[in-house]
Batch of 2 targets.
Target 1
Amino acid sequence: MVTGFPVALAAWTLLLAPLAAAAGIPLLGLHRKRLSASLAIGGLLVPFACACWLLLHTLQGSLHLPLEVKVSWLLLPDLAIPFGVLIDPLSLLMSLIVTGVGSAIFIYSTGYMAHDSGYSRYFTMLSLFAFSMLTIVLANNWLELFIGWELVGFCSYALIGHWFEKPQAADAGKKAFLVNRVADFGFMLGILALWAHSSPLAAERTLNYQLLQTRLPSLLQSGWLSHETLVLTGLLIFCGVLGKSAQMPLHVWLPDAMEGPTPVSALIHAATMVAAGVYMLCRNFWLFQGAPAVLETIAWVGGATAFFSAALAVVEPDLKRILAYSTLSQLGYMVMAVGLGGHVAGMYHLTTHAFFKALLFLAAGSVIHGTRRQNIRELGGLRRSMPWTSATFFIGALALCGFPALSGFFSKDEILVLAHEHNALLYWIGSVTAGLTAFYATRAWCVAFLGQAPEHLHAHESPPVMLIPLVLLSVLSIVGGYLGIPAFLGEPAGAFHWDVAATSLAAIATGAGLAWLIYRRKAIAAEAIARRCAWLHRLLVNRYFFDDVYTWYVEQVQQRLIAGACALFERFIIIGLAVNGLAWLTQLAGRAIRRVQTGRVQGYVLGFCCGIIALLYLAGRF
Amino acid sequence: MITLTHYLVLSALLFTIGLAGIMTRRNVILILLCVELMFNAANLAFVAFAKSLGDPSGQVIVFFVITVAAAEVTVGLAIAILMARRLSTLNADEVSLLKW
Amino acid sequence: MNWPTVAVELALCAGVLGLLLTDALLGPAKKQAIWKLALAGVLVLGGVLWWQRPWIGQSFQPMAAGQAMFVLDPFAWTFKWLFLLTMLVVILMTRVFTRQAGANIGEFYLLLYSALLGMLVLASVHDLLLLFIGLELLTFSLYVMAAYLKTDARSIEAGLKYLILGSVSSGFLVYGISLLYGTVGATDFATLRDAFATGQMPLLAKAGMLLVLAGLGFKVAAVPFHLWVPDVYEGAPTPVVALLSVGSKMAGIVVLLRLLYSVFWPVQAMWGGILAVLSAATMLYGNLAAIPQTNIKRLLGYSSIGHAGYLLMGLSTASWFGAQAVGYYLLAYLFSNLAAFFVVVTASQAVGGDRLEDYDGLSRRSPLLAATLFVGLLSLAGVPPLAGFVGKLLVLLATVESGRLWLVAIGAVNVAISLYYYLQVVRRMYLRPAVGTQPLVVDPLTRAALIALIGGILLVGIVQEPFLRALSSAIRF
Amino acid sequence: MAETIFFYLFAGLALIAALLVVTSRQPVHSVLSLLVAMFCLASLFVLLGAYVIAALQILLYAGAVLVLFLFVIMLLNLDRETLARTRSFTLRGAGTLVALALGMSLVRIVARAMAGRSVPPVPEQTGTVERLAQLLFTKYLLPFELTSFLILAAIIGAITLARLKDSDR
Amino acid sequence: MPTVVPVLAVLLLAPALGAVLLCAVPASRADWARRIAVAATSVSLALAVWIVFDYDRATGGYQYEVLIPWVRPLGIGFHLGVDGMSAVLVLLHALCSFTGVLISYAIKERVKEYYIFYLLLITGVFGVFTSLDLFFFYFFYEMAVIPMYPLIGIWGSDVKEHGVVRFSKEYAAMKLTIYLTAGAVLALTGLLWLYVSSGAGTFDVVALQHHLSAFPLDARRQAMIFPLLAVGFGVIAPLWPFHSWSPIGHAAAPSAVSMLHAGVLMKLGSYAIIRLAMGLLPDGAVMWLPWVAALCTMNIIYGGLVAMAQKDLKLIIGYSSSSHMGYVLLGIAALTPLALDGAVLLMFAHGLMTALAFALVGHVYDETHTRYLPELGGLGKSLPFIATCGVIAAMASSSLPGFGNFVAELLVILGSWDRYPLQAILAVLGIVITSVYMLRMVRGTFFGTLPQTFTHAQDAQTFFARLPYLVLVAVLLLVGCWPRPLIRLIDVSARPFISTFAHPEAIRMATTTSSQPR
């Protein structure tokens, strides 16, 4: 049995190592590239080792999860907020993903960002991001989760806007942060409501997961927490997920986030940050279980996001944006899974998705690194010039489509089974989306990697330091399905539904086949299809006009109407009327009174006598 | 039968006439004259009260008031002469350099 | 017949005569040095006043016939010190002024002395007639001094206006005294107080009192009787204006204090209300009209009207603490106003005029002058840690105790308004670029006087207890 | 009986003279009418038993002050006072009105306050020089001395102001 | 229990002594002036830090008391004392003034006069935070307001829009001084009325509190005096309708002055409302505070929206300060221990953050001579250090966790939730609004392409130039990451302070029936 100090030490290093690295780099190695890279990577490998050590012990049974280590961050008589580490299978799995995939991406980015001016600033932010992601994962109460939530938002802002000279990058960073902040507004209210209704006695209010979970039933019976407030709180908390995991109405920031360096997109906008929302849903599934209405909405939002973003990827020319839309779609799958009650299935897909999507992004990164171009129409024939990258990209694409025997197939299949059992319409949407996924994956593969390379394209293979992580991740994408992750999370996978598997395979086959015909054989001209259903094409290219609506709102309604009106009110009413008006009035009074001094002596004597008369009158009155 | 009130009413009237004179006449010297008139009205009141109280100190006060009035006239006329010489006018309302 | 109680006044009379003689004997060259003699005279008077201390509490009674007309009580003794201090500073001011006054500078100091005599008499007056005589003595010398710059039309106009208004006010004063004499049968304060002790005043006495208050209101520049102030302050030579604004106003307040708090004390409900209304009107008039001013002396004229408002506010409380507050306010007002006028005197030659524009960038040309005016004006505005703040605070406190909150509100608003136009002057001095570039040289004596005044303002502003203690022991009738 | 006749005679005369002072165009006429007023007042003083004051009134006031006035008027050879400009008429109109209002209130106060206090017969010794002098030099000694300085200040002031030195031509 | 060395007296008089010393220094020796100023403020800073650590949390209450009877007949005494809340604010002011003095190295002309007025301002504010006597409270309060006039008037800068002057620095200086004095005078009348109607015959706050707890003023009288104090002090803690002086004052003031101005001067008002208005008039407070809560929500929302529309950097930060002070007032109005802790901590955190923000804008202005957002851009390239601090300041302002602001705003919202749920929700919305305009500002100034005209812009290279920024950021992070010690210090005196407030119903009942002495 191993307990006590070593475990606590492992838990704390798991959380605080990246923070130490993030603090170390600016202090020690601000202009020394090698030192900052090694500090950052060390800051992630050490927690990875701790996580593996803990995993080893749990598997051997010598460590009983859930293990909680905490210190009181804010201690007041009527408010005690701890800051701790809660390790249970769910959080251990997630921390393994974050540290594992993270270290691969860190190593990769030493190559990718080799001659970038903000090298150490980049690695500081990455380490800080890792720390905040681990805070979300290992939090044992809602507030610590919220703290991690916000810090992750900040790190993504800083990393998206890493090349801040580029105006689009700066705007993309700002947009990401603000959209997240709007979502966090709802999330904060949700936490506040939860905290307020956590107990009738003000002193006993808490945000701790375990305590809330145990108290929930009694609160509901005692009527202190009515069902409506539970639904409302659930929806508000789901608001946070909308922003962080880029679900339908607040998904606009993810495609623009591709302005950041590709390893960032890989780490943040594929593997970890966007998954935080799903992880939060799984972690606090007990809250939503009591409110079926909330789960219903979650499922539908997930389904809609999956389908619509997959459609967008079909027409997207930019390689990274295709992968971004694919992430959106896969996240929709995970949220749908949670909405349908299968939070374990959601986590399973999250894990596998982390592997193959990180792989795809890194491969795309090495393509960009090699060719300096992102538009797939300007690429082609990379199979020959960049063998390793194209091979790993191919494996990732297969896993993404859910090709049988690869990890994607198993996890997506779980979700489709769930949909099949609970909601027929969502099941159909899921299958069609699977088809679409296959379509755009094959399209990207054929256009970018097959065919002849355009004449002025001279691609060169990336250095080994970038290829090793690619290979590692491709291995994981293949093996991911067989690691028994659902079992580890407590719900072993159910019986293998042949009919669901069959329909999904059919959908994948049609999608891939169609794409092969259009883009490899060029049997049907892509432009012809585009012309025939032009309005659909325009709709998809303009991303359902979400961006236009939002920009219109920000420029017109918010800036000109509301803020402008307030500024005008301030300038002309409060300053102009109230303040200057008062000053002008006293000036006027001054000038009027001054007129009394006519300068003529007899006027003064007249004044004198009037004074006397007034005095006599006053004497009469008092 | 002449009572104290008769004298006081007379002194009040003289006082008012003096006051009216100051405000209406433009010539500074005449203003000074009216001031003298006001002082005389006050003297009359003093003597009347001294008589009714049977106490002579009223008359002593009149003695002082007369001297003050005389001093007043000297200074007044000095300034009037200065004004006539320097500002070449004796009308009070034409002298309004200092205003507002 | 205890002569020592009148020792200071006698010494002063000797001084006047001595000045008359020396002026006749001295040639024109040595006339410029006559201010040293005047200064020495004032210092000697200080000694005599100090020597008089054992006789405090007695009164001058020629041949023990009837009530005392001239009394030397702690109240009078304390305020005589303030009058001497004012005269000291005014004489220092006149040094710069001698070139302008030309030949007859000797007479100027003589008139200063007679004005001082009037003030000292007014401090310890205990009879209406003596009040009238003292008042006229002070006012006559001020008439002449106001018109002293014979070549300057504005000075003559100032003298004329002051004379006419002064004579009308003394006319009313005399008439008032006659009415009071008529109803009571005597003019000294003791009998008057016993006559009104019961609290009912016959109508004639009320009228008499009001006319006397009007006469003194003229002196203090309360609103209905203040119209002469701006013009005379602008026209008259600056040392005279300093004397007017500090000396004559203080004399008026001292006499008012004595009259209201000892003679008309039983009737305080009536004059309390009247003074409250007057003070509100005076404050508002003075502070509002000062805003659009462009001439610094005229601005200080309006500001002195404003301060008269605060003094009347203190008097309207009809409480002993109110009287002490007025005393403290006078002390603060004395230092601040003298500091301000001292700078105006020294600066007006070099800066070439009294317009506010001439004061642009004064802080660059002479930091000491600018600092003194800065401290003086801000003390007048009532800004801590300066004397004016404590004065205003005590007066407001007394008025709150008297229950007239509307008056406190007006007083508070006026602090903000007055700060505006004081800061206008500060703006010109500190914020504007300098007009002339050559720095103003300030001779050592003026420098010492300015620093002493700043020190006085700070001292009265920060260390309040000794002054308050002295005043509370002094103001007891 | 004779006393009332004399009183009304002199009071009426004094009022008329006072009005003349205010209304006559020629400054000299005003001074002379003031002289007449002084004489009426002096006689009233005699009626009231204040003989010394009556004498003083004539000697000092009529003699010294008015002569000074005449002298100054001659010095400045004033002619008829030109009519005031129309604009200031309102001021002078208002002046008379205010003076009248003040006068009426004073008269009202004085009449109501002192109803009927009769004037007792004149005891012989009140108005005499000895009585006055005795008071003057005992009770009113201090004011007496101070008035001397008052006059000194006035004289010196008048000289310095009105002196015609070549320097201030 | 006055300790042997009057720590507070030394802390208060060090800057005053500095100012006096400066008078003797010849104007030409600017470097000496700077050294004296830095020495004076560092003495105060050292003492302030020592007090925060040495304050005895167990006993609480006023410590390090210095009592010199000043005017016995009126009951005025030079009484200094510090409790949990004011110790934190004294530390805030010490930090701001120390960094402010370092930042004012950018002042080149008339340095001596500048430092004299600056040290007077610092003394005034120290005086307000430490004095426990109504008279001296007001004495130092006014003494802090008046030096603002020459500081803004002489060394300030006109606020330009497209190069055209929107309002001159003289207008701003005049308006600020008159506005604050009017507010202060209004408060003075309230204080005098309180002094008189309490009948305790003393100006001492502690004595008054004992007296008033024994025989309190009747509720109607309190209800009349409280608004005077609340509005009077509300003018400087910019309560909504009276806030318009602060942004204009900030925009025109030199950066070091607006650091103190926004960082600390605003806290005078809110501190005064806590210490005097609520401390001495509990029933009045309970009746009027709902109105204050409503107004300060306008502060938050309205201030934020107006900040969004501004184009001048300092105006943005000015309006953001008035918006953040809305949170402080909400915390005060909520009358719960949590909310008050949050309010005091927010005063501390916001003070540091605004000081940092203004220092940065000052540096940007010195390098580029413009504060107009449309003209700025891409400075991150040439000013990396300043840009990093800029991002940190923006993040702290939009209450990113890890900074003191987040913890404070969290406490305010949690504390005010029970009594004012709607206001709490709007406060959370305020956080979003803040982050919108803060990021817009950062994007406009530091990111994007660097225009040709600013290529020569110099970053803060030397350690001495970077010291102020580092100090402020370090303290902000320290408080944000580990708030427990500071919160405990505040809570030691905030909790008993709040416990004196009776429940609202009791008050309402008291006013209707004839109020029997409790």
Target 2
Amino acid sequence: MNVATMTTPASHTRPGATADDVVLSAEDVSVRVRGAQTMLLEPVSLALKAGEPLVVIGETGSGKSLLAQALLGTLPSELVASGSLWLDGEQYPLHTPENRRPLWGRRLAVLPQEPWLALDPLMKVIRQVGEAYRLVAGRSAQASHAAARSDLEQLGVAAASEQLPGKLSGGMAQRVAFAAARAGGAPLLIADEPTKGLDAARVSEIGELLLKSLAETPRAGLMVITHDMALAHQIGGRLMVVRRGQVIEQGATRDVLAAPTHAYTRRLVNAAPQAWPEAAFKPAADSASGDGKAAGETIIRAENLTIARGDTTLLRDVELSVKSGEIIGVQGASGCGKSSLGDALLGLLPPHSGRVVQHAERLEYQKLYQDPVATFPPRRTLGRLLKDLSARHRLDDSQLPQLMEQLSLAPELLSRLPGQVSGGELQRFALLRLMLIKPRFVFADEPTSRLDPLVQQEVIACMVKMVREQGTALVLVSHDAALLRKVADRVLVVEEGRLKACQEI
Amino acid sequence: MVKLLSRLRWQYRTFLHDRRQLAVASVALSLAVVQPSHAQDASAAQASAADTRRLEIVGPFDIKGADPLLSGILFQRMQIVETLVEVDATGELQPGLASDWEVSDDGLEWRFTLRSGVQFHDGSQLDAEVARQVLEIARAKPGLLKSVPVERIVAEDAQTLVIALSEPFAALPAYLADYRQQILAPAAFDETGTAQQVIGTGPYRMLRMTPPLSLEVTAFEDYWGPQPEVRQARYQAVSRAEGRALIAESGDADFTYGLDPASRQRLSQSPRVTLAAAATPRTMLLKVNANHPAFQDPAVRRALSLAIDRTAIAQVVLRYPRGASQLFPPMVEGWHDPALPELHQDVAKARALLDAAGWKVAEDGIRHKDGQRLAISLITFSDRPELPLVATVLERQFHAIGIQTRLDITNFSAIPAGHHDGSLDMALFARNLAMVPDPIGNVLSDYAGTPEASGGDWGAMGWFDADFTAELERMAREGYGPTPARQDPRAQASGVIQRALPVIPIAWYYQNLAISNRLQSAQVDPWERSFGLSELRWAQ
Amino acid sequence: MNQVVEGLAPQRVEAVRRPRLDWPLRRVIGAAMVASLVLLALLGNLVIPGDPLEQHLYRALQGADAVGVSDAGEVITSAPLGYDHLGRSLYHRLVAALGLSLSIAAGAVILAAFSGISLGLLAAGRGGWAERLLSLVADSLLALPGLLLVLMVSVILPSTPLALWLGLSLVLWVEFFRLARATGRSVLASPGVEASRLLGFGAWYRFRHHLWPEMAPVMMTAMAFGMANALMAIAALGFVHVGIPEPTPELGTMMVELLPYWREAPFALLTPVLVTFLLLLGLLLMSGSKARTSTAADTLEGARP
Amino acid sequence: MNLPSRLLQLLMVVLMVGGASYLMMQSLPGDAAWRIAAGRYGYDALDAAAAASVRAELGLEAQGGLHFLYWLGDILRLELGTSLISGESVWVEIRHQLGNSLSLAGAALGISLLIGPPLGLLAGLRAGGWLDRSLLAVCSLLRATPQFLLALVLILLISVEMGLLPAAGHGEPQHFILPAMTLALGLAAVSARLARDAMAAVTQTAFHDFARWKGLSNAQTFWRHGLRHVALPLVTYLGLQFVTLVEGVVVIESIFGWPGIGHALVHAIFSRDVPMVQGTALVLGVGFVLINLLVDLLGRQLDPRGVK
């Protein structure tokens, strides 16, 4: 498929067409490595209309962020953009990033991803908003302070205004960053993965915030880059799907998401847990009754367990028993003690009171981590690591090729270092490592929260396969209720320091 | 930079050629530095005008405190303090605060007539009673005066001081010229007899003293003698020889004492300074423990002496024209005996002597006798930077005759301490042979002693010669009158030391200093008693 | 900038990243300098045999000469770099001095690294009182000038090389301790170590494959840096005359000895100065700096999932 | 570190210095009286009588039975005794010398701060640029030059060849320049690198980028969001650097004839003046702890987030 031809008709109609509603347009935006021919982003043209948001979706590495960077002039110095940007009737050639420097804050506002990193950790929140009013919009000191205060009030974070960013939650930080980014008065907002790392509940808040400001500001434009289908849905407007540096599909967001024409888009849309088919991961047997699996013997049991770290009690009176072949979902906001529960179950954290009864060998209780890169020794190839393991426990590794095939891991990956494979592959290797040991119990702590939806779906499928085939007991921790609902036999929620059964199931 | 490098290269090339000539030249220079002043009368007029020029003196000696025992020698050199008796450049005694003295016929009663009208810097007057008190304080402290058989000191009248002895002691006036017998005002001392201030009678008075590194003086208006032309002076202690040389080279010091050989070479090229040197009664010598099984035998000590290449040490390491041919340098007249056969190097003879003494070379190249290895330690110290260098040379030269030497470069107190506990084998140091202008004091304390406690801390060890000791004691009592052999008894004593070699002389010292061109003339005091400030003239 | 570049696919990142050695050119040059000086120390005396103590007083401060026979008939060892102020071959003194300085410095660094790393890991692993006590001792040692510590040790111990070795180790171990504790703390608490423990791997495996790879670059840097510091301290102590005693050749003492002759024989002084300087420079280059110059490559590397 | 742990550190420093001094006193080869007499009277006048009088005066015989606890007790009562050489109280001696050293160290620190961090910041803002590269080269060269060598080069060039400044001495303002410069160059080399690294790191942070995206100019970004972050490691470093400064002071003071605490320390070590060694070491150690306490406070001022 030729993207260029696909986008060319559009590019003829938009630039130059100084229709009143177009606030920003760009033609033939492309990105390549300086001094090389390889295109990292094939030429693409776009136009932002006032009041109509543009959503760019794609996987990690698809090149969707390059588009934003090329427009803003923030590409790393080793990459070079070409094409041009039209703004207020001015043309800005993209290969000289400096020409857009004066636009920042005044015409173009940027909403950063991971806003807790984007706020100066040593400056009070209100001053970070106020300085943009003062230095960019040129207001007086008092006026700036007042404006900042009213912004923060409107956004519901007035209480935090005298605090340092370190004290803010992720959602609050994003709202503060939003206020700071907008304070300079720029009508056009580019948001690059604005919800990365945020809990699901916060995602929709941010979406509302963006839409609200778009609606309230005259001649405002909004461009949102995300891989979150839910956010894309919420923002609406127009949609561009980027894959491997090419725009493969675009159109009205609602239309594209409802009826994707491209197979990839379809997969992308379906990869969101909400879109997963019901019962895809449930065992064939009837799971309505808790003891449906007659073979299930109790692998681990927590009795009247209270978990504390230092002086803080995280969870109390936990009663839990997990049977083999059972998947238990645990849902809760970050910092609620989900991980400590795992440590206590695995014997890594002595219980404050109560007890944990393990019914199998020590080695048979294992854990799957959120960040797979951190869980492998960094300087040893994956093959060596697996050999280390089988040598340590005299395991039969003859089934290794078969297992790798099951997990769709290519054999040549064995000669790579953990840092040289993708996150999804590595998480599957972590799973493979566990499957070699045949654990009776696995505690999976947010194992897919750092993965793209497509990869997440694959990894979850592999995990469920392990559970079903090896009869493993699995506790799956996630903040994504939809995911748990689709996968787990039972879902427990951590609320107010207690583990409760989720009402929805 | 380029200029500097090319200069360096040139000097490197010409160094060998220059070396001998330089040393000779600088000695010659020292003999002719005192020039008659043509500004004698003008000086007083200049003095009264506010002459803000300050003479900068740099030397190696730290300032340790106000007590004469600690830094008295520096106060003497700065001419803040004076002694009853002074010394001229040839070593002859001269009137100091005492204008005259005489001794009774039995040699037991010395009568000193004090100069009248002498004022201390605090305005008090010097009289015999003051001198008596001060001498009594000095006598109670360690020092040479302790060894003088003083019975009592009496202030006979205001100007007459009588020192009564229990037995004759001819060198007494010379002893009173020692810096430890400097006359301070009684107000300078605290109740324990330790001086807390420096209140002397000299042409300069102390302006401020900041131990350990500097002191400043200004001319004393009420001095009994002529007023000096240089009105202000400051002394700074710089402990490192390189540092001193650099200060001299950069022109920041008018007078720089204690120059190391290499710096002398360099400074001789400098347009800012003139080098001066004077022979001083100081000899570098090797103290040998004659109680050591090997060194008991005089032949072995002689072998050590024969192993040493004094000329090379003098010319290469010290950059002096020649090494020591005997203990006393020629400037110490009487004690130096030109007729003595010179100490020299003869390695073959040294080996033969050792062979004859039963020390045979073993497989490792080191000599053995009765299963004992001839391995000894040599103590020296780095306060004088040339000593470790010479010790390093000696180590090789002794090695050449089959003696293994372990260098121990340490605090110099290890030498007298090793002398007393008997642990010392050999020690290398520089000895001032005329602490008192009359060397008899030194010779007595270093080479006499008793059979039980022979020699002295900085002299012989384990070597005792009864006749020699008796003769020294006679000289101390009676002076240097003719002996039956009609020879100068001092030369005779030198001969004894030369033959027995309780210490092995290596080199005679010269006092080296750099004088800036701001000064018109300068005098080098060979007795290391004075910087000669009061005699100095500014160049313009 | 991390968050903006996040969008690059791994395969693309490969294409973007310039081929980069683990050891940049600077470090390679540094290592080559150090290695050649180490070789000189090891082999120098084999190539041109000679005695660093042998004196030819009348050749003092002369330039290089060839192998020959003197007037007296004795064979003169060639001195390729000329003679020092006592007519000793500068080349052989330099070789011997290098050997001595290097072995003391290396000995001190090895002892310091070994004890520092072991204690640091002990502190990180045990925590509690052990950590508090060890950190207190380390912090307090840090409060005293290193030179002072070495001087004090040299008063207490009789042998100078031993005192230098132990004194320098006493100064240097603190750095290793602090680094090991810091790395140990973060690595021991990392999921990787926990995973290996759960998988049944022993302490040695966890050290070898988790801790060491993390620590090694830092420790190598610290070792090179410690080496340089030790060499400088030995020279400085020689300078205040409390270093290796005469006549044993040592770089610092050699410089001090030849310093007065800087105008007569600048090249005699320059040789030990140059060797020391190159050695220190090599070590410092080898130790590298945390700062890198290629920003984009780092940004991209940091952005990897 | 917080106040209690700094106090503990202080105590530990005192304990270690006291212990080492006690060991030194015990392990002095030979008789302390000899060494002390040597320091007092010089080699020309040192003899058994002088040593005996020192022994009697100081009661050195009694020190064999001295107990470590008494020793420590004296220190804790701030009883440092008297110098064995000058007989002056150690406090008096140190007070005098400390002033000189502090003024020298202060001047050096001042110069180094004027040279190092500004250059480092400029280099860090343009990491990889020509300034960065040349600064790296100069810093590497400086760090590879032992201080005494640097001192001599400066003396030879500036003092001897050009005759601009005095080579040594103390008392006039111009005497400050060379020793302070020597000390400062070494310090500046390190602080420049540190400032450069910190600056380069700050320019890489998300908040630095975001500040510019907000519309702040480069200068505004630097003053408001860069400097404070660079100052943090720099201040911490300067606290730690105090020890290096003191160490440099020991060597530099002895070259330039500066009557400071370093000079006194070397002298005291030579003449085995243990009370002086102990006194100077204590003052240096305690000074370090106090300065770092100040640095802690300053750091908290700069970074109110608390323990990082």
